[in-house]
Design goal:
Helix content: 25-40%
Number of domains: 2
CATH architecture of the largest domain: Alpha-Beta Complex
Largest sheet: 9 strands, mixed
Structural class: alpha/beta
Mean pLDDT: 95
CATH topology of the largest domain: DHBP synthase
CATH superfamily of the largest domain: DHBP synthase
Low-confidence stretches: none
Number of strands: 15
CATH class of the largest domain: Alpha Beta
Radius of gyration: 19 Å
Shape: globular
Number of helices: 10
Distance between the termini: 37 Å
Strand content: 15-25%
Order of helices and strands: EHEEHEHHEHEHEHEEEHEEEEHEH
Length: 315
């Protein structure tokens, strides 16, 4: 299969045409690039799993144009409607995913057979234009091979999935560079299943926040994930620099390593998060034989960065 890489306007038209035929296409979001397909089509969903080589036990996120689409994909109690409306007003469109009771129209493949479905309203204008023209919810996990580094540019997607999908729409580099925060509102709490750009501090204004992932309950919750091909270990002062080691540094380069990537010279965690996957991918493609990474401060979005790094580090 030949994979086309198209710029915005031409790409939007081509994407809508393919999605109407229940094909899958790679699209930009404000978090990472996603591999999108009609959320109501089992054929399209199966194609997503096949292209990514993703296990069927790992559920997908469904993307909506606005909150008025929720009734098409979820079934809410009056209590849930209230908290969802509050969170939607505060954070949508944006990088917050909510895990909610599914509607019958959602195929089992999307939810991995669970009675809940993960939903969000993306902010990226390209993705939103496609949703508007298509008038269908889109299931879209990250557009990479399963378990690998998530893509934050169209070129990253091309490296991962060229020849496996028909189209990549280039919407430039992603704003956040980390996957959305996944929250499960239940039993009077907001449970963070996957940390992301929306922090626990931001969510605390809307209820009691519990930070506890549940294996297999939400997309991207598996223990090993977001990993480079090369061995990745934590950096500490006992490591002797050499040309065979690549370093992913938070704020300051260190001499003697074969390849070095600095996430933010100013120590800005949001900048570091946006650069994380791209820097890790470049190190993975360097001549270094193994990689080491410095921990980042666990505050704000740093919690989400450390979550991804812990799952990428080779034990």
């Amino acid at each position: 299969m030949k994979t086309l890489l198209l710029q915005t306007e031409e790409g939007i038209t081509a994407a809508v045409d393919l999605l109407k035929q229940n094909e899958v296409v790679a699209l930009p979001t404000e978090t990472v690039y996603g591999l999108a397909g009609n959320a109501f089509s089992s054929r399209a969903i199966a194609s997503i799993f096949e292209a990514k080589q993703r296990p069927l036990s790992d559920p997908l996120i469904v993307h909506l144009l606005d909150a008025s689409w929720l009734d098409r994909v979820v079934s809410l109690t009056p209590e849930l409607k209230k908290i969802v409306a509050q969170l939607a007003t505060a954070f949508w469109p944006g990088p917050l995913t909510l895990l909610l009771p599914r509607a019958a129209a959602i195929p089992d493949l999307v939810t991995a057979g669970l009675e809940t479905v993960a939903v969000r309203i993306p902010a990226h204008p390209v993705f939103r234009k496609i949703l508007e023209q298509l008038d269908l919810p889109l299931a879209a996990p990250s557009a990479n091979r399963f378990g690998r580094i998530s893509p934050t540019t169209a070129n990253d997607v091309e490296q991962e999935l060229s020849g496996r999908i028909p189209l990549i729409v280039d919407g430039e580099a992603c704003q956040h560079g980390l996957e959305s925060t996944i929250v499960w509102p239940h039993d009077g709490v907001l449970q963070i299943l996957r940390p992301g750009p929306i922090t626990g501090e931001q969510l605390a204004a809307f209820g009691k926040v519990v930070a506890q992932s549940v294996h297999g309950k939400a997309p991207g919750s598996l223990k090993s994930h977001y990993a480079p091909r090369k061995k990745l270990s934590w950096y500490d002062a006992s490591i002797v620099p050499s040309q065979g080691i690549g370093l992913l540094a938070f704020q300051q380069a260190r001499a003697g390593f074969g390849a070095v990537e600095v996430l933010s010279s100013s120590g800005d965690l949001k900048e570091a998060a946006a650069n994380l996957y791209g820097a890790l991918r470049r190190l993975d493609e360097s001549d270094a034989l193994s990689l080491v990474v410095e921990p980042v401060p666990e505050e704000g979005i740093g919690h989400a960065m450390m979550d991804r790094l812990r799952r990428a580090v080779t034990e």
